[in-house]
Amino acid sequence: MKTAGIVLAGGRSSRYGRPKMFELYNGRPFYTYSVQALAENQLDPLLISTNSFLASRFDAPEAELVIEQEVHHGPLYAIHHVMSEYKEPEWFFVLSADIPFVTAPFVQQLLLHRHPDVKAIIPVQGDKLQPLLALYHRSCLPVMDTALRENKRSLMALLDHIKFKKIPFDQHNPCFRNINTEDDFKQFM
Ligand SMILES: Nc1nc2c(ncn2[C@@H]2O[C@H](COP(=O)(O)OP(=O)(O)OP(=O)(O)O)[C@@H](O)[C@H]2O)c(=O)[nH]1
User: Fold this and answer.
1) Which of 12, 68, 99, 109 counts the most CB atoms within 10 A of its CB?
2) At which positions is GTP bound (predicted)?
3) 3-state secondary structure 19-62
């Protein structure tokens, strides 16, 4: 099952105040933790989805940059864009770029659940779905298409219309700690 890795790294970072994917944790930019977690699972192609304003700041020779022409349309648009450009992979493992505690074993664990009967594999922590650290099958594309045409931007607009598998994770699992604000950064570090 050919599976691509996508690091979503084209957001506004408006709550953070500057592009948060380049903030350093243990001397390394946040986005590199997502790239590494996917790379260690040999996901191919390994893609960073971003825009032309941010593109020159990435330094990840193992990944290809996918540049959005229309910026800031959100993760649903970004995943749809990558799936439309890359026709070969069957599955797409998506990670946001603001989760410096994500690990390769977490990615590996989710990969084990790929199955022809499901269109997406979504972790759940407590009651909270985590669609920004998740796997999507290419067959989601037409459903995403419809949602975007209806001007819906949230990944929930996809999940409301497909059969997906929920994978429960412990409440304290650090992989899901995403950094939205400088306060989050201080609290988690
Ligand atoms: N490629 C791409 N990635 C995006 C887009 N919007 C958000 N992301 C990424 O998706 C992840 C989650 O984004 P959020 O933190 O919810 O939104 P954000 O725009 O980055 O930040 P806020 O402006 O503070 O909401 C981050 O890694 C973002 O970089 C987009 O339009 N394109």
Assistant:
1) 99
2) 8-10, 20, 98
3) CHHHCEECCEEHHHHHHHHHHCCCCCCEEEEEECCCHHHCCCCC
Report the atom number in ligand 1 closest to the C-alpha of 31.
27
Q: 145 among the known binding-site residues? A: no
Q: Whose CA is nearest to atom 2 of ligand 1?
A: 10
Q: Is 8 annotated as a binding residue?
A: yes
Given its phi and psi angles, is residue 15 left (phi above 0), alpha (psi -120 to 50 degrees) or beta? alpha
Domain residue spans in the chain?
A: 3-188
Q: What is the pTM of this model?
A: 0.98
Mutate to test the pocket of ligand 1, among 7, 12, 32 (most ligand atoms within 8 A of CB): 12
Per-residue pLDDT of the chain (189 residues; tens, 9 = 90+): 899 999 999 999 999 999 999 999 999 999 999 999 999 999 999 999 999 999 999 999 999 999 998 999 999 999 999 999 999 999 999 999 999 999 999 999 999 999 999 999 999 999 999 999 999 999 999 999 999 999 999 999 999 999 999 999 999 999 999 999 999 998 887
Å from CA of 166 to ligand 1 middle: 23
Q: Choose which CATH entry (1.10.287.180, 3.40.50.1820, 3.90.550.10, 3.30.450.20) describes domain 3-188.
A: 3.90.550.10
Q: Tokens 């960073």 — which residue?
A: 48
